[in-house]
Amino acid sequence: MSERLRRLPYENLGTTEGSSPMGGVFFDTPRFANSVPFFRFQRFGRSRAGDPGGEWGDAGGIPTLGRPETAIGWVAISLLAGSGQSAVASSSPHTPETTLTFPVAMLTIGHGEVRTDSDHKLVVVMVGLPARGKSYIVKKLKRYLSWLGFQTKIFNVGDRRRLAGSADEYETAGEDLQRVGRKDSGEAPCSGCSSPGADAQTAECAQCETRHSSAFFDPDNKKARQIREQVALEVFEDLLRWLQAGGQIAIHDATNSTIERRHALISRLKCETDVNLMFVESICTDRDIINRNIKLKTHSPDYVGIDPEVAEADFRARLRNYERAYRSVGAAEEKLDVQYCKIIDVGKKVIAYNIQGFLESQVVFYLMNMNLEPRVIYITRHGESEDNAAGRIGGDASLSANGSKYARALARFIDRRRLEFAVEVEEYNRLVAQTICSTASSTPGTCSEAEGAVSPDSAADALRLEQSLLRRRVQPGFEVWTSMLKRTMETAEFFDAQRYRIKNIRSLNEIYAGKCEGMTYQEIAQKFPDEFEARQLDKFYYRYPGIGGESYADVVMRLQQVIVELERIRHSVLLVTHRAMARTLLAYLMDIPTTHMPSMELPLGYIYACEPRPFGNFLRVWRYDPLRDDFVEIDAPSTLKIRYPQVSLPTATSAPPLPSPAETAYSAKN
After folding, report:
1. pTM for the structure as a whole
2. pLDDT tens for residues 183-198?
3. What is the set of active-site residues?
């Protein structure tokens, strides 16, 4: 195996040496061809003089950082902020950068995980009434933490509860009797599944054996309550076993709406060491959001085969049962000094209490930047550059003639899509309003006075709801983000500056190839055969040699601020960037594992449009047709292909197994 796989060398990086107020020594590493520091390596404890090489490698005291255990005692501090500007974006490519002084946690990236200085693990316990967006928050949070490199998993109590179909009959609060499940699965479907208006509580066919009606969630139903508590604790035990097996962040996805349930989870976790607990409560006071969420709930596994009107009536009855026992996180948890975060109206208001750990701070920071505004995130690579035509990587070349043609077509396409999306949003809101208003007069209220939201129960409320939804059109703002390299800024030159806000963001620059900048893959294979081999074997963690050389793992950390900004903005945005950046961004948006991310085929001439929706991001893809000088929509799932590179080292005459930029350029035959 190549030496590159055992260590990621940083030799000859130190250009500035000095003492540090935190003790020890520091070395600043230059980025690109200027003297602006990109990463600062800070070592604590022994001085450089007291450690000539040894465990720190042969670079005069600079760590090799090949494995996590060899980086103990050092912190890589990213120096990104612009003077007077956001750390994410600058309005001018000449905005100066400066050094940040702030405390950071020890982060070392290893294969398949991110380790923190404490090695503590985290359990995130969700709290909240149904139809308050808990599952939406959970999926987004899991996607973000996994993208950062943390081993994260969701444990859904509802899925386990639906499997509790072997229990005996239990008591109900009223006269109705409901079975948790049926042992005899050979019966024909009952009329309750197919007859509109049938009482959902009488559905007892084989297909309904895992369905629980609203009576199951009655707080006075002792047998059902016991089953629900048992299921929640069983899922919690599964969660802890997964953490003990190597997981880092586990999410307990359930209502957990009573103080007794939460205290039971707290008591169980006291038996575990190095596992922190954090409650995340989702509270919604927006009547429109709640009613739309209820409509979505009628399509959940609990209501498969049930008439939508019957399903909605049963779910609203379930909500009323939950509200009777619901107690918000607060004084009871504060007495136990438990960390918690309340998300009100999907990020409009955030309350955090006793947040102390590094992982917890990552969760809160991300959750503070969510919103539900309709918008689209467009991602495209720049037009073909002169280096693309020559098959060279990196560099800062201008667009070719083909690239300029693509840039003009891109501006026309976004102009058209911007108007089309506004129409789509208005039509969707109109349909939702009509659907909700059609049942408003016959539907009782569902939301507690404590949360300040009740379902429409009068014609006036229905009219107000419809008008409110129709006002929620797409925001007039539209931003275009590019990197600081010429080929992306030239691609955005044809956008009207009066209608689009254009930002140049250094974090979107292409992955820096160090000594390999400006070379073809064939030249790299011939001049640096060990480097070429190492890159094929581990593209995600492979770091290009030379000053400032980067890996995909470095790119993930660099784009973290960009991702948070994408979650924060309330209008559509187009990102004109590069192949490695597009791969990393799409891996986050579409929840693609980081192990597959570096091998995604993303040729020039494609536009990827991600639209945030309640159950995930919806992807559409357009391909540029140079003969028509326009874009054609194509099948999205078949577009994000994964190319698994060959492992054998090429000879001087063979074609490189990894594609060059020229091979992935758009052409008429595409």
Report:
1. 0.72
2. 333 334 443 343 333 3
3. 253, 284, 510, 578
